[in-house]
Sequence to fold (328 residues):
Amino acid sequence: GEVIAMHPAESGMQVGRALLHALHNAGISVLYQDRQMKTVWARNMRAPWASETADGKDLLSPAQAERIQAAKLKVVESGNADQLELGIPGNQGVRWFQLWIDADRGGAGEVLGVVTTMVETTEQKRREQTLKTLLREVSHRSKNLLAIIQSIATQTGRYTETLGEFLARFRGRLQSLASSQDLVTSSNWREAALQELDSGQVGPYSSDLPQSLRFAGENPYLNPNAALHIGLAMHELAVNSVSYGALSRPDGHVEVSARLEPEAGTSPNLLLTWKEAVGDAPRNEKRFGSVALERVVPMSLNGSATLEIGKGRMEYRLTVPHGNFATD
Fold:
């Protein structure tokens, strides 16, 4: 064992009191038993190890008690240390404990007894389980994001004729996803506010955002999947507007409104509307933007959408089912 040099002013009682404080503060229980499993001394024994501190109830199951006893007897016979991990059900959920069982040897090396050290590891176990859950969630969402990127790359390639055009449009869409993803990660992968999402997508195409984007109505919190896809829709609308819509003019603006639409017996849907004045440029049906707005985005949200262009106006209406957002 480790030899500790004591200061002349120290005494065994002082060291003992200090160690007792350390055991108590660290939540460590220590039990010393002889070869016949008779308790010689015990320190800082807490539930479930001391029945008097557990409202008179033995929290260990018979199987767990037998497992601990068998491990101690084995250590006495072999002299080799052992470790156990126990999960004990309780009113507040399972409590986890780590047990170290060590042999106490005499001067000639004979085993005199067994020392059992018990430490609760419930919080550590819960942190580990939370971390595993988060890692699975990150993996799942990363795969979803990669699938979205793959789809965007395929569709962008389908509706562009030159490599330069493809790269310009694809980079813009990747930047749109990155902007939406920043909002999602800043909220610990929970929700992104709709108005902040819209501002982030229109902002790069406006020198005066308060003038260019006029938002009215509800400001719900979108779940990660909805944030990515609605962000993509806002990006396509902004790019379209800069090309031949309201944002192509210094004094132009777009109007975005969000309204909750109650449905009998169900939670309300969100109706998201984008309106703006547009020029006389003819609508090109073979554009990824219109495919994304009318098919990709609503299908990804299990919603519906309409895109109407005519008489100098453009209006995009997206119905988002309640499962994609929260209003609290």
Observations:
- Confidence is low (pLDDT under 50) at residues 52-57.
- The helical segments are 12-26, 62-78, 122-158, 163-186, 194-202, 209-212, 224-244, 288-300.
